[in-house]
Amino acid sequence: MKILMVCLGNICRSPLAEGVLRHKANERGIDVTVDSCGTSNYHIGQEPDSRSMANALKNGVDISYLRARQFSKADFEQFDRIYVMDQSNHKNVMALATNEIHRNKVDLFLNILQPGSNRAVPDPYFGGAEGFQHVFDLIDEACEKLLDELHQQ
């Protein structure tokens, strides 16, 4: 299984989701390939936001080695599932989809917790430390449920 996490700049939410899912999958012995990217080109090559890295590390996950990249059409061929963090990311990714197979790979990440709710993982970029912890908690819960699902397959 190959999973891609997508947000706007690939410095807060999606690298955190990549790191948490990879960390938890390794702990549980579940074979999954995880990557992340952004729909924008604002931060290509940069490490995650320092607040996101600090929050992840506080929760036992190191994401300092990740580097931002931009989503491309080729990602539809490389990944089985593409999880986006909000409606704007969803719109941007779907605009690049060229067929139904591609479109069926894309979903909002929190739909794992509440199917069809289309809730966004809030962007903590302009918030304080509590916003980063809230995002971590949401992502952590969704990753647990996703891994439970993958383990059953």
Please name the defining characteristics of this protein.
alpha/beta; Rossmann fold; four-stranded parallel β-sheet; about 150 residues
Describe the structure.
The protein is an alpha/beta fold and 153 residues long. The protein has a single domain, classed as Response regulator (Rossmann fold), CATH 3.40.50. The protein is built from six helices and four strands. A four-stranded parallel beta sheet has the order 2-1-3-4, with helices on both faces. It is globular, with a radius of gyration of 14 Å. The mean pLDDT is 97.
SSE layout and pairing:
Blueprint: E1 2-7, H1 13-28, E2 33-38, H2 50-58, H3 74-78, E3 81-84, H4 87-94, H5 100-104, E4 106-108, H6 129-152
Parallel strand pairs: 1-2, 1-3, 3-4
Q: Helical region count?
A: 6
Cα distance spanning the termini? 10 Å
Q: Looking across the biggest beta sheet, what order are the strands in?
A: 2-1-3-4
Q: Provide mean pLDDT, rounded.
A: 97
- The proportion of strand residues reads 5-15%
Q: Output the structural class.
A: alpha/beta
Uncertain runs are: none
- Report the top-level CATH class: Alpha Beta
